[in-house]
Amino acid sequence: MAEAYLVEPDLKFVQQLMDLGGGSLKKCYQCATCSVVCNSSPDARPFPRKEMIWAQWGLKDRLVKDPDVWLCHQCNDCSVRCPRGARPGDVLAAVRNYSFLHYAFPSFMGKAVSEVRYLPLLFALPILLLLALLSLTGNPAALGGAIVFEELIPHAYLDAGFITLGLLSLGSIAVGARRFWKDLLENSASHAAGCLGDGEKEAPRTDPGSEGFSRHLLSALSEILRHSKFKDCEANPIRYYAHLAIFYGFMGLFLTTTLVFLGIVLGGIRPPLAPFSAVKVLGNLSALAVFGGLTVVIYQRITQKEQIGRSSYYDWFFIGSLYAITITGILTEGARMARMAMMAYPLYAIHLIFVFVLLACLPYSKFAHLFYRSVAMVYAKYSGR
Amino acid sequence: MRILVVGGGISGITAAVEVAEVGHEVTLIEKNPYLGGMVARMNRYFPKLCPPSCGLEINFKRIQRNKRIRVYTLAEVERISGRAGDLEQIRKPSQNPPLAEKIEDKGGFPDRPLDVTIRLNPRHVNEKCTACGQCAEACSLEIPNELNYGMDKIKAAYLPHEMAFPMRYVLDPRILGTDDAHRCAQACAYQAIDLSMQPKRLEIQVDSIVWATGWQPYDATRLDNLGFGRYPNVITNVMMERLAAPNGPTGGRIARPSDGKAALSVAFVQCAGSRDTNHLPYCSAVCCLASLKQTTYLREQNPDSRVRIFYIDVRAPGRLEEFYAKVKNDEKVKLTKGKVARITEDPATRDPVVEAEDIVSGERVRVRVDLAVLATGMAPTPLKSQMPMEVRCDENGFIASDLSETGIYPVGCVRRPSDVASSVREATAAALKAIQSGARK
Lengths: 385, 441
Fold this sequence. Notes:
Chain A has about 375 residues and is mainly α. Chain A contains 17 helices and no strands. The longest helix of chain A is centred in the middle third of the chain and has 34 residues, at about 155-190.
């Protein structure tokens, strides 16, 4: 033994992890089957066996500062093979959920997204805002003729609102991601060797600087864009395609929205666009991709709990709000084309509310995995993991 | 008083001998053509690491000397019933009572004997056999040798092994109707071969029954990540016993099945299918010591051999701890904490590559070895429908019912995974209980 290490278990943290989806963590008996069957895990200090004992011992610091928690892509090969039903995949997902809470800025928002009882509050704000807007911009009952959403709420208001919200969210996730990055660097210097499975001390890492960071970021991004890690999964190969569809569908929708916004601001376009314009086709295809991917993901989560992993509130919040946005978006467009004004306007309003909630909760919900996982992957590239 | 013992392994033999030596009549039946069960297939066994002939031969002698024991090999229980429905009345328990609850005693022990129907499968060799082996000489048909888990072949007219009891050849059913069968019959100078032998039924009445049907090795082909059945140099611990046994397929030389090369580096994979909710959820109790014992086979056979044991926990209770310490102190033996969760094969050399996380160093290791031995566990022999009453098994398939009211006493590995010493102790206890149960009538 290299040196004495005093374990100070944080029992409250253990309970929190169990509540966040890691309810099976105490079943682990440290056989390390998981670390062997994991195809994402490196040979040096593999995961998730060591994370399991940290979780059992309540070593919060180690877990939130551990890049490996995010190198896990939740394919659940480990959970399927686990001889004890300790479900390491679910436990790592719980640690990630905890990280959303831990790195949340401002922290009350993290709390608000962590529990279902705050859900009405999250929706109350956009509903009130929408009602206020509607009372400002006129009388919805007077709407008639062709369905033009501009007439319900002018795009200028929406653009201003959502851009502000988006910037706030981006700023917030930037704070969280930066804290995480600092923790990763700091943590690399402080690992103690011994029975906790840290192995030899890792060489301390200093900040690679922005140039070094960008280099590793590019490498990580290429991995993310290719979705190569998802291909390693044995327990659930379909998920690769589902996540790919959601990811690129979402990017497509983001691009569509940006293009339409630029069109309105710079080109003076007045939506709706023609049904077969390039941008419209991109938007529609993207929406279908997200819808299809999410449908597969939801179906699997409901019917194959053992292979996919147990779903926590974080999973359902993110998947649910994204699904709601997609469905209301598709239905809104359908109702507009079918000239069903009584359907189109309310659906549009609901769609906007869900968009608001997803965007506002981006830094604290599972949506943020996009950022935290990317940071961890950059760190992994940098540290040679 | 007459007592039936079902199963001629170490537990059954012990119970039968104990009952008979007290002075009661015993019928001992065994489904294989020889007595000795799994112990007969060991190279050496605990606690004293004797060869099986050691303990078994004393017991066979006790059987031979005792006129009160009748032995039937190739025999199986077809049916047990009580008279006038009293068995059924006492022992049809309520619907799925919880395990802890005893079957309600509705009037105590059956006061009438149990009727048992036994099926005697034909051996096609009668008691005139002198085990001269002329039939096997004459026979050309070969069959996989089940005693050696199919690692070699034997003639279809065979002696199960050289210390088999009864010391008599057997004709495998597959030989019937072939020219080989007639050649065997002609080769026998003692008219010991009877090709017309038919299955027989034996009806007996007994006062109580000792049920000692034992265990079977867990089916290692179900451990799909460990490559058993795909890679020839991945074997199980019971196969290792046969490889090391002087009467085994290699004459005791521990060699790789793929090329017959001596196995110089060997990895033991502990808990292969045991303590695993996907397979056997319980600890099989004997595999740790079995692997430590097999390590000594290798180390004694070749001073250059190296052994690596991958384990979750080494369970060496009581005095066996000393044996564990002795093996561990051998510098050519390395114990690694971490379960092997994947075995691959180098296709060129057919060397198995075992993969585990060494938990102490926190590194994932891949070790190429000559031979990988899966320490597979003990699965209970499935209970067939011979029992007249419902017998509750625990969630793992071991008998959980208290059957004392029925006059049936399960013993040994049909109740829980156990080693020879505790099975023998339990068998002696069961013998007494069976006698008492008969004496109450």
